[in-house]
Backbone:
């Protein structure tokens, strides 16, 4: 029945029909193009949801893996010296570089690099001072960053790419037996690495230098200074015993004249040495700087192993309180006493 014309077709004697509600007009079917558009839109929405969920899951998984690796590292000496150190080096590379910036600049300024020099940086780790040196000597010069760890050198390579440096290469090798011919370099450097090298490495450095060229080193001064006293010093007071093994002593050359003597024994002449205080500032929290220091401080591992597991929470809290004494604004300003020394090849 045509509900629009019902009154026109009704008989005169017919009873009025019951009134029925009008039904809405059915929607016109979507054209094929619109249907396909909706399918594409729905598919894109689903893919975006999956992408976001996947990114969240990846982030959670990476955080979980980091926590697992760091936890296992604290239970294993070999892991602490390898996986844990690599994780921390990557995690804190920006803030660690910021903290060491003044020490790096002090060594580079002391070394006085010139344009076009061939430079070798020993025990380069994640890339300093090699990166700063490469930026100073220009594209006609060349810097080789040498270290035993290929993983740390990979971080150095990534940092060099971030700085768009094409004149820096890395080399995995032992500084005690350098894979280079005699008299090939104009300058040799090492920042916080010479303390862990044998005197054979100093003799090798002298061998590969050109006559009249310099080797320049930066080493830690005494243990009794803010950064070390507020971190490793707190642990040492709790457990006593040997601070570090004699063959892994960061403070090997802290006594005035000791590094100069080693350079002379290795064949260097016109040896110079000085002690200097440089900025050593962490741009973050006490918890962060202690995590970073704990992770990369391999020489202190035997001391850490003497700490009863149930005492770590208490020690960590005490260390963070000690570090907090050096907070200035949003930074932690320790200052660092370092030794700078150099010698020339005859």
Residues:
């Amino acid at each position: 029945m045509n509900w629009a014309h019902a009154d026109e077709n009704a008989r005169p004697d017919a009873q009025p029909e019951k009134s029925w509600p009008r039904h809405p007009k059915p929607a016109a079917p979507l054209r094929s193009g619109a249907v396909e558009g909706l399918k594409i839109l729905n598919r894109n929405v689903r893919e975006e949801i999956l992408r976001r969920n996947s990114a969240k899951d990846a982030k959670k998984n990476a955080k979980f893996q980091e926590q697992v690796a760091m936890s296992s590292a604290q239970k294993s000496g070999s892991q602490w010296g390898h996986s844990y150190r690599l994780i921390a080096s990557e995690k804190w590379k920006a803030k660690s570089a910021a903290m060491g910036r003044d020490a790096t600049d002090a060594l580079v300024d002391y070394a006085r690099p010139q344009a076009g020099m061939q430079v070798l940086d020993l025990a380069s780790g994640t890339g300093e001072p090699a990166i700063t040196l490469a930026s100073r000597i220009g594209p006609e010069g060349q810097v080789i960053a040498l270290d035993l760890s290929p993983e740390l050198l990979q971080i150095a390579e990534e940092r060099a790419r971030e700085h768009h440096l094409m004149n820096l290469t890395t080399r995995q090798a032992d500084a005690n037996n350098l894979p280079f011919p005699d008299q090939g370099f104009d300058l040799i450097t090492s920042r916080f690495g010479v303390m862990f090298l044998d005197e054979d490495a100093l003799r090798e450095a002298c061998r590969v230098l050109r006559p009249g060229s310099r080797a320049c080193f930066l080493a830690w001064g005494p243990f009794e200074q803010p950064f070390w006293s507020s971190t490793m010093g707190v642990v040492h007071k709790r457990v006593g015993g040997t601070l570090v093994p004699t063959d892994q002593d960061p403070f090997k050359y802290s006594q005035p004249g000791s590094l100069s003597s080693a350079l002379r024994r290795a064949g260097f002449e016109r040896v110079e040495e000085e002690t200097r205080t440089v900025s050593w500032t962490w741009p973050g929290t006490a918890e962060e700087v202690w995590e970073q220091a704990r992770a990369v401080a391999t020489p202190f591992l035997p001391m850490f192993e003497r700490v009863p597991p149930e005492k770590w929470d208490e020690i960590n809290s005490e260390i963070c309180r000690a570090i907090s004494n050096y907070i200035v604004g949003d930074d932690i300003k320790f200052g660092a006493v370092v030794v700078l020394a150099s010698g020339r090849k005859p």
Summary: Strands lie at 118-121, 142-147, 168-172, 185-191, 209-220, 269-278, 281-282, 327-328, 331-333, 336-344. Residues 65-344 form a domain with the Rossmann fold fold (CATH 3.40.50.150). Residues 1-30, 58-81 have pLDDT under 50 and may be disordered.
